[in-house]
Design brief:
heterodimer, A: alpha+beta, Thrombin, subunit H, 3 domains, six-stranded antiparallel beta barrel, 5 helices, 29% helix, globular, disordered C terminus, B: 0% strand
Chain lengths: 343, 176
């Protein structure tokens, strides 16, 4: 049945390359790819850019079928799902109010401490037009590239959390290395103690936590966010929660890589947003109608206050405008500025 | 004369159908959708036409085409270049040497024949990837890939038989 119904052709024609030469070409390709990966990457991005219309065209019917298949089972649980969502919505509204209040408080603290605010992240929304799920290969192709300002290293997130990061960009397409890929390494911070570690993909659904001191016990359920170390990714992107797996710690990811269709690419490398010079009106003492201890001199050079217990909040004058407002483009945040951690 | 022209076009189309099926297999393997989710890797759909036509029409599925289909698979999957191409060529070499044994397998034996080819492709891929990274990698992802590929050959085989019957056909010199 398999091929038994067909006669076996013997003729091959004389124009074909012999098997030995093709095998040698394959080996040469591997070696060249290992030595000059950028060469192959450029070819790859060009090919995928060229094939982009075909990939985009095949996406729509496949996504429709995927949704249709996925919705078959959901029909029977719509009512329960609706009740659950209503309850979740009410709970989230409470959390939203709490978050707004806390956000205001953080802003006020940042102002008091003259901390540089977290850089506002701009983002590009892109669609997934290709996905490789092969042994030791967990990648995605997105329909946004250099034309849209996408650069290698940028974080890719869906509405739940981080999915991966860009590792290759073409003119109109880009490649994402997923967090579960064997080659993925992401510096993470485990809340609430901000334990620093590395999350390493190993082709399982839950990447492993590595570079963690054995003396640090982790609590299953603790939230994992990106640490921002190495200036590779923005800090505070939600990634998942800690789970224990036979004495090892792993991360159960928030994002579902298999169902993500529309993702956001975060632009972290844009110039930092610098804090405005504080005015007396911004201070809580002034807002409360109390006179500030020191009269603010906005244009005065920075004066270091002695670290002594002060009876009242002391206003530290802002730095000179030259220092604060016109820094070099690639200036980094000073180390002594407290990192708020969260976006 | 017009009929001769049509026949010529039909033959030319028939000659590229095996390669087109291989390219289609590469596309399907890398689509942004998988019924199997993340539980199982995508099957090597591209290997199926390579195996099928390597047996029945090696003049249309030459080693060079197997290599190029593998290269396209490497390009679209985002993996290191040449790994899939080399594994396809290695599989082709084994099928080529044992063509009589593979092609003579009837019924379930034909499926086992392809399973052997899939095993060779997955094993070659594993060995090359391990050498590429110079580390011992877990075997389970490749076992999964092999199982999925071998299991899905049965339905794809019907499609390949139909395509071969309607578009490709046997080699003209061997029809009589």
């Amino acid at each position: 049945m398999g091929n038994g119904t067909w006669r076996i052709a013997r003729a091959r024609g004389g124009a074909h390359l012999p098997l030995v030469i093709v095998a040698a070409l394959a080996v040469a390709l591997i070696l060249i790819g290992k030595a000059q990966s950028s060469l192959f990457d450029r070819a790859r991005t060009n090919v995928v850019d060229w094939m982009r219309p075909a990939l985009v065209a095949t996406r729509a019917p496949i996504e429709g079928m995927s949704r249709w298949l996925g919705s078959i089972g959901e029909i029977f649980v719509v009512y329960q799902e609706n009740l659950k969502l209503k309850e979740e919505n009410a709970r989230l509204r409470q959390w939203q109010n709490t978050a707004i209040v806390l956000n205001d408080r953080i802003k006020r603290y940042q102002l008091l401490l003259h901390a540089a605010p977290d850089p506002a992240l701009s983002s590009v929304v892109a669609r997934v037009i290709g996905r490789a799920s092969h042994p030791f290969l967990q990648t995605m192709i997105l329909d946004a590239g250099r034309q849209d300002g996408i650069k290698p290293g940028q974080a890719v997130v869906d509405q739940r959390g981080m999915i991966g990061r860009i590792f290759l960009t073409g003119e109109r397409t880009s490649w994402v290395i997923l967090l579960t890929d064997l080659n993925s390494r992401v510096p993470i911070s485990i809340e609430p103690d901000t334990v620093q570690a590395i999350m390493a993909g190993d082709n399982t659904l839950e990447p492993a936590i590595e570079a963690l001191s054995e003396r640090i016990p982790l609590k299953p359920g603790a939230q994992v966010v990106s640490s921002g170390d190495g200036d590779i990714l923005p800090a505070g992107i939600p990634i998942g929660i800690v789970v224990e797996d036979g004495g090892r710690y792993r991360v159960a990811l928030f994002a579902d890589q298999t169902t993500a269709q529309d993702v956001q690419i975060l632009d972290f490398k844009q110039p930092l947003e610098h804090p405005p010079a504080a005015s007396p009106k911004d201070l809580p003492v002034t807002a409360a109608g109390l006179p500030p201890v020191a009269s603010p001199r906005v244009a005065a050079p920075p004066v270091l206050q002695p670290v002594v217990p002060a009876p009242q909040p002391v206003f530290k004058p802002a730095s000179t405008p030259q220092n604060r407002n016109t820094p070099p483009a690639d200036e980094e945040i000073d180390n002594d500025v407290p990192d708020t951690g969260n976006q | 004369m017009e009929r001769m022209g049509n026949l010529m076009w039909a033959r030319m189309f028939g000659n590229i159908v095996p390669v087109l099926c291989g390219v289609l297999g590469v596309f399907i393997s890398n689509l942004p959708f998988s019924i199997l989710g993340d539980w199982l890797p995508s099957p090597l759909y591209a290997l199926m036409p390579v195996y099928f036509w390597c047996l029945v029409r090696p003049d249309l599925m030459s080693p060079a085409w197997a290599f190029l289909i593998g290269v396209l698979h490497d390009v679209l999957s985002g993996g290191p270049p040449g790994i899939c191409a080399a594994s396809f060529v290695a599989t082709y070499a084994v099928i080529d040497r044992q063509r009589d044994a593979f092609a003579g397998l009837p019924g379930l034996g034909a499926l086992l024949g392809f399973a052997t080819a899939a095993l060779i492709a997955s094993s070659a891929s594993y060995v090359i990837f391990a050498l590429y990274n110079w580390s011992l990698l877990p075997v389970s992802p490749y076992v999964k890939e092999f199982v999925v590929t071998a299991a899905l050959y049965w339905p794809v085989l019907f499609a390949l038989n139909w395509i071969h019957r309607n578009f490709v056909g046997p080699l003209r010199s061997e029809m009589f």
